[in-house]
Amino acid sequence: MRLAFRLFLTSTAERFGDRYAITDSTHRASLSRLHGLCVSSCNPMKANRTGLAIAIMILAACLNSLDAVIVRLLSGEVHPLLIGFFRSFFGLVAVTPWIIGGVNLAASPFRLLHAVRAGLKLAALVCLFIAFAHAPLADATAINFTMPIFLVLGAWLVLGEKVGNASIVGVVAGFIGVMIIIRPGGSQGFDPWLLFALGGAVLTAASQLLLRRMALRDTTDRLVAWNLISIVLLGFVVMLPVWSMPTWPQLGLLALQGALGAFNMTIITRAFSMADASVLAPLDFLRLPVVALMAFLIFAEVPAMQTWIGAAVIIGATIVATGGAARRKKRHARDVDRAE
To answer: What is the pLDDT of residue 6?
Structure first.
């Protein structure tokens, strides 16, 4: 199970152009040997495994889309802070056996930074839930796709990492896509609730940047476990001022939301252990048409043409921006290996 979580976070890091997962030549060599062993033993079944991994990612995109629908169903009756707490709580319950069975929480060199990262992640969730509750679901989902773009931008501005021309073009194009969807000054009016979706993307990127630095001194297992626990504890504190006991049907939806989140993490972990991240990562964008379809069938929402145009620009910009970062990472790894 621990290896599965490492593979999941490593694959996710590669998907967003993140470079925290492999920090020195020893780690790279170990992962290269592991990858070579897997490829040599599974080559005859590689096509079938890739096809199955793609199917799993499509299922994950569909299930992930239910998150937005559940939040909309609960909106107006359950406060977003309560949704954030219960989603995290039920997700933690699902993975508690893994934490108890093999994670040494006391060995982590961090305490305060775990709380800071949990605060960023919880704030990102609440912002996204507010957007889902009030803004068109397709619009909020499309804007949330800008998170990798903010990750690249943050790595440049905050961490001082080099950014190539492709990444710069991707960042600029991403903001153009956001403007197309938000339509400031447009004839259909500006929807301020979409700013919460944008804020959620920024906060998630900030959490990922902090994770990148923390991963230099801590293990993936402990980082995942501490984050889950910290979010629940922090979520409990911040939701107390607005506490109102959910009804049993509402608790059922909240439990379903938390369980789906844990299940999605499990199947995505499995998918990324079966196929290359470059093949699977773009499938996450399937969330947009799935969310749009669900919003139409359940809430009679019809996305405007600007939403599809802006989403296409954002998706293309994300691929360009993160693809440039990933290529630089590979070149850097090759240069280090040659130097050794």
So the answer is: 45
Element (H, E) at 272: helix 248-272
- Mean local confidence (pLDDT), 99-110: 91
CB contact set of 227 (below 8 Å; sequence gap of 6+):
114, 117, 118, 121
- Among 35, 4, 30, 6, CA closest to 215: 6
In angstroms, the CA 56 to CA 17 distance is 22
Per the listing, tokens 């947009």 go with 288
Output the pTM of the full model. 0.80
Other beta carbons less than 10 A from residue 287's beta carbon: 22
Residue whose token pair is 């492709």: 166
> Per-domain residue ranges for the chain?
2-34+47-339
How far is Cα 167 from Cα 153, in angstroms, rounded to an integer?
A: 9
Which of these, 212, 199, 177, lies nearest to 318 by C-alpha position?
Answer: 177
Choose between 195 and 332: higher pLDDT. 195
Q: Is the pLDDT of residue 112 over 60?
A: yes
Q: Token digits for 295?
A: 């919003």
224 contact partners, CB below 8 Å, separation of at least 6 = 5, 9
Check: CB of residue 60 under 8 Å from CB of residue 105: no
What would the DSSP string read from start to end of 59-127? HHHHHHHHHHHHHHHHTTTS-HHHHHHHHHHHHHHHHHHHHHHH--GGG-S-SHHHHHHHHHHHHHHHH
The predicted pLDDT at position 4 comes to 42
